Amino acid sequence: DQQVKQNSPSLSVQEGRISILNCDYTNSMFDYFLWYKKYPAEGPTFLISISSIKDKNEDGRFTVFLNKSAKHLSLHIVPSQPGDSAVYFCAAGHSSYKLIFGSGTRLLVRP
Amino acid sequence: EAQVTQNPRYLITVTGKKLTVTCSQNMNHEYMSWYRQDPGLGLRQIYYSMNVEVTDKGDVPEGYKVSRKEKRNFPLILESPSPNQTSLYFCASSPGQSSGNTIYFGEGSWLTVV
Questions:
Q1: Is B50 on the interface with A (CB under 8 A)?
Q2: Res A97 pLDDT > 90
Q3: What integer is the mean pLDDT of B103-112?
Q4: For position B4, what pLDDT does the model report?
Q5: Which of A24, A83, A91, B100 is most exposed, with minimal Cβ within 10 Å?
Q6: What is the per-residue DSSP string for B36-93?
Q7: Considering only CB atoms, which chain A residues are within 8 Å of B31?
Q8: What mean pLDDT, rounded, does chain B reach?
Q9: Which of A27, A97, A103 is the best substitution to test chain B (most B C-beta atoms within 10 A)?
Q10: In sequence order, what are the residues at sequence separation of 6 or more whose Cβ sits closer than 8 angstroms to the Cβ of residue A90?
C-alpha cells in the first residue's frame, strides 16, 4: 500500500513554461513534506519543504503547495530551465527519520 | 565539505557471496539510514539508526543487516545476496529526528547480484 503516490512517471515541458509535479498521500498523520531532486549518477538532493501548518512555501523559482483536505502536494517550477531536467521525488512523514517517498517523476525541460 | 560517502559505487557479485556497503558521514549527524531505489517504487527505507548502537528496521529489511558502532559509520551488510537485491542503494544522514531536519544522501551504490 503506497502511502505517497506520484501518478505521473514523466513530464515534458518547454523551457520558460511552468512545470507542475503532483503528489498524493493517504496518511493524515503526515505533517511534513519535502521534494527531492535527483540527477543521474547522483544521490537525491533536498529541494524544498513545507510543514502542515502552511499551505504554500516559496523559494525562488520553486513553490510547493499543500492541500491538506485533498491530501495533495504539488511543486511548481517557474520558469522551467533545461537544468531542471531530473527525477523529482516527493516525501512525507511525521519525523525526519521515517520519511515515505513517492516513486518519482522524471521531468524533461525542452530547450 | 559536508558529505555522505558510500563505497563501493558499483559492484557486481554472485548469489550468496557476503558483501558490505560502507557509509560514512562527516557532519556528526545522529540519524543515518539506508534506502533502495527500484523502478516504479521510489526510495524505500531498509534500516535506520537514531544513534550509536540504536538501529531499527525500515520498510524492507529482509536480507539485510546493519551496525552502528560509531556515529559516523553505518555499513549495510548483505549476508547472502540474492538477485532480488539488485538495486541502487542510498545511504543518508540527518541531524536528528524532529521534523524539519533535512536528510542528506550519498551518491548511491549500484549493486548487481547474478
A1: yes
A2: no
A3: 93
A4: 96
A5: A83
A6: EEETTTEEEEEEEEEETTEEEE-S--TT-EE--SSSSB--EEESS--GGG-EEEEEEE
A7: 96-97
A8: 92
A9: A97
A10: A4, A6, A21, A23, A33, A34, A35, A36, A73, A75, A101, A102
Is the pLDDT at A3 greater than 70, yes or no?
Answer: yes
C-alpha cell at A56: 504554500
B98 CA: distance to closest CA in chain A (Å): 5
Per CB-CB distance under 8 Å, the chain A contacts of B104 are: 46
Interchain proximity B99–A98, CB inside 8 Å: no
B66 contacts B49 by C-beta, under 8 angstroms? yes
Nearest to B31 among A9, A94, A97 (CB): A97
In terms of C-beta density within 10 A (0-12 exposed, 13-18 middle, 19 or more buried), how is residue B14 classed? exposed
Phi-psi region of B44 (alpha: psi -120 to 50; beta: other; left: phi over 0): beta
**Range B95-108 average pLDDT:** 77
| Nearest-CA distance B17 → chain A (Å) | 25
